[in-house]
Design a protein that fits this description.
Blueprint: H1 2-16, H2 20-29, H3 39-57, H4 61-75, E1 80-82, E2 90-92, H5 100-118, E3 124-126, E4 135-137, H6 150-162
Antiparallel strand pairs: 1-2, 3-4
Helix pairs in contact: 1-2, 1-3, 1-5, 3-4, 3-5, 4-5
């Protein structure tokens, strides 16, 4: 699940305003090893996050699959199973020897592809609250999430309730 969640956090960071220190913190939060970013790496990662945006904004499954296929064309590597550091078996999408940006490209592209297969092409989205920059991976039971949080959903409901009713 690291790939889709990391992709969502990187896209949200782009939509909020990119910052290399914040990007490094996102990588650390997702336990991406050797996640130090220099200025060049930070710019490459921002460019990659820009390319991920259409995955979360896609309206149809075909659009979403096309966006992920474009990511796979650039970021895919040969996946392999590993059990390093006493962890249970898990997939790595790129060799550890690659630089952090290449590894992030691989894990986000591969992770999003696997997630889309398992979720029938759905369960990714952008918060429907006006001007909210957050995108999300919908892990809810019914898969009908429209907001990044209950707070945004409630805020939007109150806004709609208070909006003047148009007369016909």
């Amino acid at each position: 699940m690291t790939g889709p969640l990391l992709a969502a956090d990187l896209v949200t960071l782009v939509r909020r305003g990119w910052d290399v220190d914040a990007a490094t913190a996102v990588l650390d939060a997702h336990e991406i090893r050797r996640a130090e970013l220099n200025e060049r790496g930070g710019e490459q990662l921002r460019e990659w996050a820009d390319q991920i945006v259409p995955v979360f904004l896609a309206v149809t499954v075909d659009e979403r699959c096309g966006a992920i296929n474009r990511l796979l064309a650039v970021g895919a590597s040969r996946p392999y199973l590993t059990t390093h550091d006493g962890l249970r078996p898990h997939l790595h999408f790129a060799p550890d020897a690659q630089d952090v940006v290449a590894r992030v490209r691989a894990v986000t592209a591969g992770g999003l592809a696997l997630f889309i297969v398992e979720s029938d092409g759905a369960r990714l989205g952008a918060c429907q609250r006006d001007r909210c920059p957050v995108v999300y991976v919908d892990t809810s039971r019914n898969g009908r999430r429209s907001y990044c949080s209950a707070r945004c959903g409630n805020y939007d409901a109150v806004r709609r309730h208070r909006a003047p009713v148009s007369r016909r």
